[in-house]
Amino acid sequence: MRSHRIALLLTLTLSTAAAAQSARPGGPSSEPKTWRTPWDKTRPRDPFVDHQGRVWFVGQVGDYVAHLDPKTGEFKRYTIEEGTHPHNLVVDAKGMVWFTGNANGRIVKLDPATGKLTNYMMPDPEVKDPHTMTFDNKGDAWFTAQGAGVVGKLTQADGKIRLWKMEKGSRPYGIWLDSKDRPYFDLFGTNKIGTIDPASGEFKAYTLPNDRSRPRRIALTSDDAIWYGDYTRGFLGKLDPKTGATEEYALPSGGMSLPYAMTVDDRGRIWLAETGIQPNKLVAFDPAKKAFTESITIAADGANTIRHMVFDRNTRQIWFGRDANMIGRLKVSAPALVP
After folding, report:
1. Which of 101, 269, 282, 285 is 20 to 30 Å from the Cα of 62, by its Cα?
2. Do 293 and 12 form a contact (C-beta atoms < 8 A)?
3. Count of Cβ atoms closer than 10 Å to residue 204 Cβ
4. How far is CA 54 from CA 63, 67, 95, 213, 313, in A?
5. From the CB of residue 202, how many other CB atoms can be counted at a distance below 10 Å?
6. 164-181 pLDDT, tens per residue?
């Protein structure tokens, strides 16, 4: 029987969180900044920083790939196949840009030097919606397909794709790799988190204790602890993959928070986007303190949802897209100085 421990935290209002930040001696807050894209109503999302400092992203509704030069504010757009509805983008170690075709059943590689597109089609025509992906140390891509209910792996050496079919209604969503390149992923239609052994291909599921839990995004810290945002209940959860034990921490906005985008910074803090409130907030949780330590409001012109974000270690910035036609970043605060 898996152990389950819920750590109850006081729900903080924005004013309380802001006061706590300003009251901490030597504890600077993280700094947000946003850029409006030139293409209205295209849902820019899932930015990723390349080795040159360019910030690549997709326009899910607008059918494009683009990059932003954050130093100059200039944008460049690349044309892709109409009807792709790109969902997620990653730049690999060689500088190639990859994105998922969320409506046409493919993963696409874009050569930024030439604009050439290389398509990797799903082996099953029923898998039309590759969703979120991540690359392992061998350069192979692991990905989810929410509607089709599959998790897949694209091997670059031969271009072949292997698919694992999940249970009906499971909705595989966020995905992250541990230190040994083992993928973990949310099964958003259930109260489960799944994993696949890269060597044997064996699938395993962890069932979360609360039947109402719906983990949407996922992140792993350096100790390979699994963190998830419980979208329906407003909790940040921690899963120990060795024992199956879980811990939960109430988000500052409680049941209204609708935690969505997640990432981890270089201080080991877990960041989540609270999207049930407008404007959205980015909140940071410190596992060492077992407490939320920052709450940053992300201003927007109109309703907004922060769906996915990544931490760039070179610049110590979290990058995210927004439904309100913006690309944004959060410059992560440095640790407080101890006199």
Report:
1. 282
2. no
3. 11
4. 20, 6, 11, 37, 14
5. 10
6. 999 999 999 999 999 999
Q: Which two tokens stand for residue 148?
A: 């089709």
Structure-block tokens of residue 317? 């910035």
In this structure, are strands 44-49 and 55-59 parallel, antiparallel, or unpaired?
antiparallel
176: helix, strand or coil: strand
Mean pLDDT of 111-125: 97
**For residue 130, what are the CA distances in angstroms to 121, 174, 301?**
10, 12, 30
CA distance 56 to 109: 13
Q: Which of 257, 238, 260 is nearest to 306 (CA)?
A: 260
State the first-to-last Cα distance of the chain, in angstroms, to the nearest integer: 46
pLDDT tens figures, 217-241: 999 999 999 999 999 999 999 999 9
Token digits of residue 184:
């973990």
Q: Are 137 and 166 in contact (CB under 8 A)?
A: no
Per-residue confidence (pLDDT) for residue 313, from 0 to 100? 96
pTM beyond 0.85, yes or no: yes
* Separation CA 78–CA 110 (nearest Å): 9
Q: Report the sign of the C-alpha dihedral through residues 239, 320, 271, 277, in that order.
A: negative
Q: Of the candidates 55, 63, 148, 74, which has an alpha carbon nearest to the alpha carbon of residue 108?
A: 63
CB distance 108 to 98 below 8 Å:
yes
The angle at the Cα of 321, spanning 88 to 51, to the nearest 5 degrees, equals 70
Polymer length of the chain: 339
Please name the helix (run of DSSP H) or strand (run of DSSP E) that holds residue 16, with its range, or none. Answer: helix 14-23
CB burial of 255-279 (b: ≥16 within 10 Å; e: otherwise) equals eebbbbbbbbbeeebbbbbbbbeeb
Listing DSSP states for 133-165 in one string gives EEE-TTSPEEEEETTTTEEEEEETTTTEEEEEE
The amino acid at residue 254 is G
